[in-house]
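Lab notebook page, bench 4
Experiment: in silico fold of construct C2
Operator: M.H.
Input chain length: 346 residues
Purpose: comparison with the prior construct
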Amino acid sequence: MSSAGRSVAEIAKIVGGALEGSPDVSVRGVAGLHEADAGDLTFLANEKYRGAVAETRASAILVTPGVDCPPRLAVIRVDDPYAALQRVVQLFDPGPPPVEAGVHPTAVVHPEAELAADVAVGPWAVIERGVRIGARTRIGASAYLAPGVQIGEDGYLFPRVYIGRDCRVGDRVILQPGVVIGSDGFGYAPVEGRYHRIPQIGVVVIEDDVEVGANSCIDRATLGETRIGRGTKIDNLVQIAHNVAVSENVVMAAQSGVAGSTKIGSGVQVGGQAGIAGHVRVGDGAKLGAQAGIVGDIAAGSTVSGYPARPHTEVMRASAALRRLPELLRRVRALESNSDQSEKKP
């Protein structure tokens, strides 16, 4: 990642850090400790990689107070290097691919759709009857907005996004390529040995500042709404079923899935490939480990992992005990052998 150079003095001021070394060192990009080269700024946010600080080829580094750094590095000391990195990366982020304001000649826009000022609609996009799009929102190539969809301001829909009828998307929402909002929920009723489809007549509501990763799917509600709360960030390949309610500032890693009518509290962290059963409540601030299987309610603030999910400390103790089983089995067999020999003695 590179762009026009920034001085370390400028960067230190932006992140509120204390600079050690020459203020004139120029930074042209940001990279990890092992990948960085001359002209890059790197960072140490995990003590596991402290040894790599001495070997990095970067010109500058973000670290916490007390970390020893080679004198050749310009050092910016901050309390939270990872949070500071987020601000630095924004300086070098080129942003989404540009889409010029206006409607591309190949796009199809229904005459009863409403596009606010400076909306951009890319090639082959389809905007149906009654769609409303807020100012400065960008619609990528081959996106499809079904009748009645509402999109807020300053959003970005990457190519091939699908939004189903009457779904509502807030301001500053980013939908990565292939996202599907408002596909039918998985609803079927068994009748006389056959499954009959239940019409899904609800909607999806995406609140402000939500980001949804590539090829993730959020199903419309059977009745009512499926809702994603303000500031929530969803990774690639995530499945959210009908009538799920996700609160504010939730993060969900790739390949996780949530079954129907589950309620997820604010600030919850969902690890990769975690599965959450239907009609479950996950309390505020809970942390669900990767591949956790959530089959019942999770208390607020708890950290769980494993299948079925239980407190993470308990899972780690069980895992440690499991590793000892072969040795314990050998000892039991030895005791049984000694016991048999003792019984055979006259």
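Observations: The domain at 2-92 is CATH 3.40.1390.10 (Udp-n-acetylmuramoylalanyl-d-glutamate--2,6- Diaminopimelate Ligase; Chain: A, domain 1). The longest strand covers residues 2-7.
Next step: discuss at group meeting.
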